[in-house]
Amino acid sequence: MPKLAPELYAALSTFAGHRRILVALDFDGTLSPLVDRPEDARPTPQAAQVFEELSQQYGVRTAVVSGRNLDSLTEVYPAPRPENLIGSHGAERRVPSVSSDSPEQPELSASQRANLKELTAKLSEVAQRHEGVSLEYKPSATVLHVRQAPSIEVADAAIIEGQQALAHLDELRLMAGKSVLEASVHSGNKGQALQWLREVLDVDALLFIGDDVTDEDGFRILNREDLGIKVGEGPTLAAHRIETPEMLPELLEFLLSMRN
Ligand SMILES: O=P(O)(O)OC[C@H]1O[C@H](O[C@H]2O[C@H](CO)[C@@H](O)[C@H](O)[C@H]2O)[C@H](O)[C@@H](O)[C@@H]1O
């Protein structure tokens, strides 16, 4: 198992020195290794345990900031889990300390509902044409999954056909992820959600760890006192990197030891 880079230990020590901190983690590819079927994903047990211990520390707030919708996230992440949950890339927000009369998810307008229905029908046609390609449904988005396609050619063809099928639709956010094409009628992103969490949880610094393209929205809003860590390869705005989700427990344990 590769060790954390020396400069990452140093950055974590500095970060841990802030009075009130938020530790925000992405789910798929970060807390959980990537798997073929979204419903089979689970957090690495050791990472989940240390994350829970961190949440008990004075001055530490924890959150999961996921592209999944909240129902799906809570199905694959059994309790105990952080009380603060962001789903659908920021469109759904469950933060108990914030007034309960604020909705977990904004109601869609009539035109958003119509768009969601149309884009779902288009993606459904694409999925039906290709073996191993399936759909995942969210309150404000539909996701085309190609990880189980029999070949890279089939996977690529399905993604390209999905993009072409939706090209004529307005007010749509298309997000490319790992073996997915997500079409959303909501414009929010993880960066906006993290900024909001920073304010409502009143923290001095935040740590965000993520692996996918949509996590770059989160890294983009980080300030000098914050810390961004990318999991795996690929271009990133994060200042630090770990190679795999399996390195997350050691990282969280070090942070926990610094807070103790
Ligand atoms: O922001 P995240 O919590 O990382 O969610 C991003 C997407 O994750 C899920 O898809 C990814 O993980 C699946 C299970 O490991 C994998 O099969 C798929 O190929 C990955 O893209 C989830 O299904 C999506 O809804 C999330 O948007």
UniProtKB/TrEMBL annotation:
- Composition bias type Polar residues, residue spans: 97-111
User: Which biological pathway?
Assistant: Glycan biosynthesis; trehalose biosynthesis
Cofactor(s) of this protein: Mg(2+)
Q: Which UniProt keywords apply?
A: Hydrolase, Magnesium, Metal-binding
Q: Quick check: keyword Zinc-finger in the entry? A: no
Tell me the GO molecular function terms: trehalose-phosphatase activity
Q: Which domain of life is it from?
A: Bacteria
- Which InterPro entries does the record associate with it? HAD-like_sf, HAD-SF_hydro_IIB, HAD_sf, OTSB-like, Trehalose_PPase
Give the catalysed reaction(s), semicolon-separated.
alpha,alpha-trehalose 6-phosphate + H2O = alpha,alpha-trehalose + phosphate
Instruction: List the SUPFAM superfamilies.
Output: HAD-like
Task: State the residue spans of region: Disordered.
Answer: 78-111
EC number(s): the record gives 3.1.3.12
Function summary: Removes the phosphate from trehalose 6-phosphate to produce free trehalose.
User: Which protein family is it in?
Assistant: Belongs to the trehalose phosphatase family.
* Name of the protein described by the UniProt record: Trehalose 6-phosphate phosphatase
Q: Which organism is it from?
A: Glutamicibacter bergerei
* Gene encoding the protein: otsB
